[in-house]
């Protein structure tokens, strides 16, 4: 099977076919190139997606990744980043192993095709020239033969005519001989041209064209083989990254299997556990007795039954506690966080203190390592003075030692606070006593300023405990200051949306659906001051009540 023998007369069709083959190869190159661009774009989008959902450093999001589910999500993002890298590898390998090589091969193919068909056209032109020469000698031979025949006929006619002179007959005979000789010469030339043409034609169809077409056939077969190899490479490039992509997917599955719901639940406990005891039962209040006590006083005194005398406050002592509540709220609004984290519940305070102690210990160890390094360098300078001056390190050594001492004092301070908190946390009965409003052993009245964490249904109310676990309140200390305080006028009414137990000083308990008077609206701190009767007033979370302000009241705001 050879194009030279089978397709000897299909020069033009072979030229079109080989051009079509090159076009197909270029189309495949374009396909692979677009695939590489898609892979790069896909990898870029995957990396951007992974980066978009990565936790920001030193942000609240970073703290959330202590949960196993969030860790698994972080692992998924990292694996997707590696997954994107494999698509970049696909693009790079396809570009280097297919696109570049095929582009170079196409250029070589075009040059070879051009050269082969140039040789073919040259051979065709040579055959056309030989054919023209043959036709020319043939026509000349034909013409000379006709001329010789006419000259012979004219001679015979003159020779038969008796009226023609002998000289004219001889002249006609010579002319006939000349024409006959010219015909013989033309015949010899035509014969030679014919023999030469046949030889050239034989070489053209049996030597030159088969050789040229064989080269073209080999070129076309190389093109077909090369495109097949490129398709195999195309598949192999994808196949090579499948194991790594599989590992990425296995990593995602492994991270998902590592999710532990119990562990996450325990972390929630550790994150939000306050360490307080739940409040006790509220005792029945007998209003048939002539006793005027606020519901907050009753909840504070009656919910704790240690046998100690009850803490009773009149209307004046109630007013005397509000300045403390306002002061605490003001400090919280200003963002002032106590150094010992006393504004946090016990368990959260312990965690913060432990974290601070660990950080300080790490800084101390870092400074000690730096001191050891400077000391070793100083020893080297002492042994080899040419390397440096030992005295130049004294200032740095002193500075590091001072830093270590400062850090140690700081650590001791936090360790003392930590020991104080850890000493209290196990004693649950003691926590209950700290939350109650009973007197201490010396008979002085105390009020709990360490509020138990509470949240309203909408999450807007959280009581913070103050720096000290107990606040001793002596009513007589403030009697003179607030004796002349006049009760504030009501500026509206409110309806309790939820039941609230006012267990802390300055708060008042309300029952769901109860109607009360508003004497001071929310100042932006989440608290509204209300009054039940002449002697019972206090603060409740604003989210617990629905306020109806009197537009004509002094200082009232209009709510739409």
UniProtKB/TrEMBL annotation:
Pfam families tied to this protein: FCH, HR1_TOCA, SH3_1
Main subcellular location of this protein, as a coarse class: membrane
Subcellular location: Cell membrane; Cytoplasm, Cell cortex; Cytoplasm, Cytoskeleton
Regions of compositional bias (Basic and acidic residues) in chain numbering: 452-469
Residue span, F-BAR domain: 1-264
GO biological process: endocytosis; signal transduction
Coiled coil (residue ranges): 350-377
Record-linked PANTHER family: FCH AND DOUBLE SH3 DOMAINS PROTEIN (PTHR15735), FORMIN-BINDING PROTEIN 1 (PTHR15735:SF13)
Protein name: Formin binding protein 1
Organism: Urocitellus parryii (Arctic ground squirrel)
Taxonomy of the source species: Eukaryota, Metazoa, Chordata, Craniata, Vertebrata
């Amino acid at each position: 099977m050879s194009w030279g023998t089978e397709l000897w007369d299909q020069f033009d069709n072979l030229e079109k076919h080989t051009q079509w083959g090159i076009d197909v190869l270029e189309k495949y190159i374009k396909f692979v190139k677009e695939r590489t661009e898609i892979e790069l774009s896909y990898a870029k989008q995957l990396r951007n997606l992974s980066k978009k959902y990565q936790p920001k450093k030193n942000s609240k999001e970073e703290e959330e990744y202590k949960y196993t589910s969030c860790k698994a999500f972080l692992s998924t993002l990292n694996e997707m980043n590696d997954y994107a890298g494999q698509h970049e590898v696909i693009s790079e390998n396809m570009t280097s192993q297919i696109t570049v090589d095929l582009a170079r091969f196409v250029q070589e193919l075009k040059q070879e095709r051009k050269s082969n068909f140039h040789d073919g056209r040259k051979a065709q032109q040579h055959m056309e020239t030989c054919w023209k020469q043959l036709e020319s000698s043939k026509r000349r031979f034909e013409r000379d033969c006709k001329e010789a025949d006419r000259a012979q006929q004219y001679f015979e006619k003159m020779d038969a005519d008796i009226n023609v002179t002998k000289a004219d007959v001889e002249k006609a005979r010579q002319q006939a001989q000349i024409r006959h000789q010219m015909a013989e010469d033309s015949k010899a030339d035509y014969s030679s041209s014919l023999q030469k043409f046949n030889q050239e034609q034989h070489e053209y169809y049996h030597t030159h064209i088969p050789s040229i077409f064989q080269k073209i056939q080999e070129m076309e077969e190389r093109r077909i083989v090369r495109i097949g190899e490129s398709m195999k490479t195309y598949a192999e490039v994808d196949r090579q990254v499948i194991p790594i992509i599989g590992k990425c997917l296995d990593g995602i599955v492994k991270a998902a299997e590592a999710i532990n719901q119990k562990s996450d639940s325990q972390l929630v406990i550790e994150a939000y556990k306050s360490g307080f005891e739940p409040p006790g039962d509220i005792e029945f209040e007998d209003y048939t007795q002539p006793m005027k006590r606020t519901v907050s006083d009753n909840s504070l005194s009656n919910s704790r039954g240690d046998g100690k005398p009850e803490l009773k406050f009149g209307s004046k002592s109630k007013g005397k506690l509000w300045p403390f509540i306002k002061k605490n709220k003001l400090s919280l609004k200003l963002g002032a966080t106590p150094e010992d984290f006393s504004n946090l519940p016990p368990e959260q305070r312990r965690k913060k203190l432990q974290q601070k102690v660990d950080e300080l210990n790490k800084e101390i160890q870092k400074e000690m390592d730096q001191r050891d390094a400077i000391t070793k360098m100083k020893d080297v300078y002492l042994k080899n003075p040419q390397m440096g001056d030992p005295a130049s390190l004294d200032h740095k050594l002193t500075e590091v030692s001072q830093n270590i001492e400062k850090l140690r004092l700081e650590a001791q301070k936090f360790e003392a606070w930590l020991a104080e908190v850890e000493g209290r946390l196990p004693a649950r009965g003691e926590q209950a006593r700290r939350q109650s409003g009973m007197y201490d052993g010396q008979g002085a009245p105390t009020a709990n300023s360490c509020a138990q964490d509470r949240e309203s249904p909408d999450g807007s109310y959280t009581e913070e405990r103050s720096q000290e676990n107990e606040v001793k309140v002596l009513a007589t200390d403030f009697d003179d200051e607030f004796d002349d305080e006049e009760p504030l006028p009501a500026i509206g009414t409110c309806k309790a949306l939820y039941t609230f137990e006012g267990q802390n000083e300055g708060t008042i308990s309300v029952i769901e659906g109860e109607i009360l008077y508003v004497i001071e609206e929310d100042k932006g701190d989440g608290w509204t001051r209300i009054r039940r009767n002449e002697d019972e007033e206090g603060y409740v979370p604003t989210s617990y009540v629905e306020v109806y302000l009197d537009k004509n009241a002094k200082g009232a705001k209009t709510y739409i």
